[in-house]
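Hi, here's the filled form for the chain we discussed.

Project: internal
Contact: R.S.
Residues: 243
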Amino acid sequence: MDDNIVKLFGVKFHKFDEEQAFKRFLYLLNRSKYSMIFTPNPEIVMMAQKDLEYKDILAEGDLVIPDGIGIILASRIKKLGLDKRLPGIEMMESILKYCNNAKKSIYLLGSSADNVEKAAHNIKTVYPNIEIKGYHDGYFDDAEELHIVDKINEVKPDILFVAMGAPKQEKWMYKHRKILNVKVAMGVGGAIDVWSGAVKRAPKLFRKVHLEWFYRIMTNPKRIKRSFVLPQFLLKVLLSRRG
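And the returned structure, exactly as it came back:
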């Protein structure tokens, strides 16, 4: 196995810092084949334990970075060498900055029709040199799916940001891997909602002390059920360590 790859309960991660992850992105962007970037958090790792097809798809990621302090805590317990979380939204920000400087193109897929339109507008405002080739919401049926792929292929964006939530976004990116005419596809979860202004990211203080998840619960109590995954995940890590 590649020295830069570690596995946590069978889910692959690249053992990169921010600079190495960005260099990997540039390598993927400049090669002549389709690449996928995944950003698993504890919830995704736990999903993959019950959905083996999903686990296999995650293993196909060309860049897989740890999004979530729970992954880093687990890495420390199991001595895997993942030292710092690399949130998907921050990786997306780095990619957008690069696209603005290099005049690259993007396509946004996911969230609601209103939010993805606002996100496209806000990204263009902040990064005027980016060419936004198009956008589409994530609420479509099987009959529309190939039509959307055709629309994306027609405009040939350099980067496709897919914000459908896990596991749907990763499965969608993998399902169409042989026909998508883009260089890099990245799963970005709720990042489009943040860019639209519909959801506010945690203040820097919460992020600095690794309590972004707690801020999300405070601002959206409906997420509390999802938050139970983190202690379950850490318990699984501790039990596997003892076992």
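Let me know if anything looks off before we file it.
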